[in-house]
Amino acid sequence: MSEAGLDAVFFALADPTRRAVVRRLLARESVTATQLAAGLPITRQAVSKHLAALVDAGLVASRREGRETRYRLTPEPLDEASSWLGVIEAEWDERLGRLKRHVQEGAG
């Protein structure tokens, strides 16, 4: 994933309402903005704006069905962001391991 793609994913997930939308999408195959808004303390228009940010980040896909637009979670960007975080975590684990060995050698 490109740096711009990672930026978009982390930007989208930085907002608690968008995280709530992602959680709701996890539980359903697809849903309309109106259905999402029914369970959130914001308007349908606000939900639509949050969905647009999630679509821009590649986290959500939309599909027209008649007069409605249905949204579904697309987890691939989450997988890629998780992999990136795994690399960072491994680097920090290595650094902390070296520090621990250094401290133990200095104390012994």
Explain what the structure shows.
The protein has 108 residues and is an alpha+beta fold. The chain has a single domain (3-107), classed as Winged helix-like DNA-binding domain superfamily/Winged helix DNA-binding domain (Arc Repressor Mutant, subunit A, Orthogonal Bundle), CATH 1.10.10.10. The chain is 68% helix and 13% strand. The chain contains five helices and three strands, in the order H-H-E-H-H-E-E-H. Strand 2 and strand 3 (68-73) form a beta hairpin. Helix 1 (3-13) runs antiparallel to helix 4, helix 1 (3-13) packs across helix 5 and helix 2 packs across helix 4 (44-56). The longest helix is centred in the C-terminal third of the chain and has 32 residues, at 76-107. The model has no long low-confidence stretch (mean pLDDT 92).
Characterize this entry briefly:
The protein is an alpha+beta fold and 108 residues long. The chain has helices at 3-13, 16-26, 33-38, 44-56, 76-107, and strands at 31-32, 60-65, 68-73.
List the keywords:
108 residues; Arc Repressor Mutant, subunit A; three-stranded antiparallel β-sheet; elongated; alpha+beta
